[in-house]
Design goal:
By secondary structure, this protein is mostly helical. The protein contains five helices and no strands.
Length: 168
């Protein structure tokens, strides 16, 4: 079990580190667009829309990494009043009631949208460029899946701590 948790952590950690380069690409594309538009009066169609698409990739794939580093919104005001074991139990209950059902639903729905997008050869209709939406929808489903697995890893950590009183 510890190995599975370590693998999940490593995958989300590596994805998070790779996203730094994606952020750099978004910065460079935005800089190019600003210089082309305001200094040379030659705006591009592709730069702004590429940044929008890459931003979706960035956000989607970062959910697991943010969860790994406990960066998502939490009820700290309530949790800090509990003992560490009480915090672990509260996290487990909230995961069972909210996190897993919601992420399960999101994975299910995004999988359906992903398949439909590839089958229909869907394109982004708000863009003159009209890029295919299959890759974006696939990334979205992958982001939900990575987030879900990171939640499973955290749930196992919390369960282990609640039962044995020691961290994994």
């Amino acid at each position: 079990m510890r190995r599975a948790i370590r693998v999940i952590d490593q995958v989300n950690g590596k994805v998070g580190m790779a996203l730094r380069w994606l952020a750099l690409g978004m910065i460079l594309a935005t800089t190019y667009e600003v210089i082309a538009r305001y200094f040379f009066n030659a705006p591009t169609v592709w730069a702004h829309q590429t940044v929008i698409l890459l931003g979706g990739v960035f956000v989607s794939l970062s959910w697991g990494w943010v969860h790994l580093h406990q960066g998502h919104v939490n009820m700290d005001i309530l949790l800090k009043r509990l003992s560490p074991r009480g915090q672990a139990i509260t996290n487990m209950v909230c995961s069972l009631l909210f996190f897993f059902p919601l992420l399960g639903l999101m994975i299910y729905l995004s999988s359906q949208f992903m398949v439909e997008s590839w089958v229909m050869h869907e394109t982004w209709i708000v863009s003159i460029w009209r890029p295919p939406m299959g890759p974006s929808r696939t990334i979205l489903m992958l982001g939900f899946t990575l987030f879900f697995f990171q939640g499973v890893a955290q749930f196992v950590r919390d369960a282990h701590f609640a039962i044995r009183g020691e961290k994994i």
